[in-house]
Amino acid sequence: MDSPSPQLEPTPVQPSTDPLTHQFTTLNDLAHELTSLQDLANRGSWRSILDKVNRARSLSLLSTPHDHLTYLAYIVLSLTKLRRFQEAQTELDSVDDFNSHHYRYETYPKIYPNRSGSMVPFSLRWLHALLPIKLGNRQEGLDRFYLLLDFVRGKLNKNGTDVSVKVWRKREVFVVNNIINHHLSNKEFSVCLDLINGLISGGNLDPVMLSKLGHVQMQIGDLEGANVSFSKVEKLISESGESDIGLRNLVSRNKALVYLVAKDYLSAVREYDDCVERDGMDVVAINNKAICLMYLRDLSDSIKVLESSLERVPTVALNETLVVNLCSMYELAYVNHSDTKRTLSNWIARVAPDDFDSSCTRV
Amino acid sequence: MSTPLATQSLAFRVMRLCRPSFNVDTPLLLDPADLIVGEDIFDDPVAATHLPPLINSHLTNPPDFSDLSYRARFLLQNPSDSFGLSGLLVLPQSFGAIYLGETFCSYISINNSSNFEVREIVIKAEMQTERQRILLVDNSKTPVESIRAGGRYDFIVDHDVKELGAHTLVCTALYSDGDGERKYLPQFFKFIVANPLSVRTKVRVVKETTYLEACIENHTKTSLYMDQVEFEPAPNWSAKILKADEHKSEDNSPSREIFKPPVLVKSGGGTRNYLYQLSLSLHGSAQSNVLGKLQIAWRTNLGEPGRLQTQQILGTPVTPKELELHVVEVPSAINLDRPFSVHLNLTNQTDKELGPFEVWLSQDDTLDEKAVMINGLQTMELSQLEAFGTSDFHLNLIATKLGVQKITGITVFDKSEKKTYDPLPDLEDSGEIHRPLILTIKARLWNQIKEREYIQEAGNKEQED
């Protein structure tokens, strides 16, 4: 797990002190055993991450301030993923002010010679805004998100490297999307539409964002608006000449939705089939095709489509929405649906990542 | 006749099949750069060069078939992934509320949970409301031949909901079970239909125009997208919707061509108001006071449609005038003690001949001299007007006081009917002509002597008549 870091300097320095010394060649240069942490996160083994963090702390394996912060970010994220929001909040409370000098490189010149700036991982600021919402204090969370947006925009005004500007701009879009998501969850559609409009009219027309606009319009019932948005997406993608499969499938899936709302389920199924042929892991196409089959009175095939996707590509197909749909179909199809659902539930328990919310099986 | 459910081979299972919705959740996806390093690291030029490739090589490859990790639940591929709407559709999770004007749609599955085949299945589905029983499905002419053990027969029913209150979906099956015994299975699924909207109307008559204000309130649990709200006037009426001017800033928005803000009425008490201007068609007469109906069409998730119309909306009866007197033109500059001419038009709005007429300025009750008087003959004669006919004439007037003055009391008298029509209102606002009879009378620099002479002359003329 710990690969030996190339020692370019003669000074005997621990692997996770100033990363600059090792020119960022491996993840472990960035923080203590980071490769392992990242690997566990990819697998969805959030409980294992909790163990690892707690062990590192109790055995005092973390030697630098930035190690502590990285580990803090991982533990708060893990607890949030596991829906243990109160514990996540408690962990985060150990940092009372992100902007304090305690979290700046220049406060520790012996550890980080010639380095300055904030060492706070941005995810901590994001979690700090998200957790109040998860704990039911909506107003506080929303205020924090808007303050975070201000903070990010403030960073954009300072002259950083090109990469730095790009990163902060991505963070700006990320925060706005989080705010939109929050309003969307509360069915505050007019606000969402205004925010999306703000993102789109910023100059660069992102087809993915425009497609999301079409989805929101469709959700509220503005079918004409959705059609305009989807047409524009198709035009943008064909004009750019990109043959990226992801974007081509996006266009197909949008077309399928237009067929679906017009109740032409057969054409929708055809579009979804095209998507799956291009990309066998397009789980949105797979799930939505199964829904169309139900409206075509073909409950048996809709069940088959979902079950086969779980068998074939479990790591993308295993999501809570697909399972909810499958369980609804089981409840309709089988008088003894509890048995069928229990079988599914047992399989999920063996295969699913730690953060999978198994209440979706309603078993 | 009907056997207990436990001994039945068949059972109905029902799922409401309104349109699906997009799943919205908070996906908790992160860009690895926001997790594994401090937020300001990219300010360092060395980090800016080396970190991105390191991150990309280890962490951000999109999953492929060989990747058995759940990284798609963790890594942010695109900042808009945190939007939380991936496009995944989710089936209706509960029966939900059903509203008047919607379509009730249901997936019905007949399951054979026995170990034997059942045969000759006659299926009927009916909707029982407080007032009637509507047949939805009846296959008695072509019964289902068989359903194997553990098998199913599915069908979908649609019903436009047109009544309020208790509804029961009655599903019945008549079949031969494994023993050849003919069995009857009735099952009942109850639901209540509620009113999605309420409409409050106000009718106001200003001069001869009727205004109808309608306020639509949403009583449902979701927002309603107003697809179409139209007022259908009664035969003698015509209606025009009055809309507020759009705010200037909205017009200049660069994304205008992409995105038009929708008309969305919020759930649980949100309202929207509409204003209509109604006018009686020229040849009509309002015998009844029925104005018309409001047709409302809305949509909810993924375009699920609903449609209602109000009952007849009543207004106060308006009798149109038989005679219309319009001011066509008033001179722009009117000077004290100088005669001026006002161009008027008289229209006969009936289908019979009216007149001949006399026109004069009626006297005020007060003894004060009127500010504006007829100059010359105090009564003007007008000839008969044919049905729907019109005639122009001029009144020669003179102003005796300065400032803003009104011409009051223009009276039209029908000589044959011996009928006086209401004086022309002081401020006219009928149809296309907006001509105030409010005049500004200016003083003019005259030779004093000449002025006195002129008035003397006018006064003499009067005395002669």
Automatic annotation (TrEMBL), chain A:
PANTHER family (UniProt xref): D-ALANYL-D-ALANINE CARBOXYPEPTIDASE, TRAFFICKING PROTEIN PARTICLE COMPLEX SUBUNIT 12
InterPro entries on file: TPR-like_helical_dom_sf
Name of the protein in question: Trafficking protein particle complex subunit 12
UniProtKB/TrEMBL annotation, chain B:
Domain Trafficking protein particle complex subunit 13 C-terminal: 331-422
GO CC terms: TRAPPIII protein complex
Annotated Trafficking protein particle complex subunit 13 N-terminal domain residues: 9-193
Domain Trafficking protein particle complex subunit 13 middle: 197-313
Highest taxon of the lineage: Eukaryota
InterPro entries for the chain: TRAPPC13, TRAPPC13_C, TRAPPC13_M, TRAPPC13_N
Pfam (any one): TRAPPC13_N
Protein family: Belongs to the TRAPPC13 family.
Name of the protein in question: Trafficking protein particle complex subunit 13
Natural source organism: Dovyalis caffra
Lineage of source species: Eukaryota, Viridiplantae, Streptophyta, Embryophyta, Tracheophyta
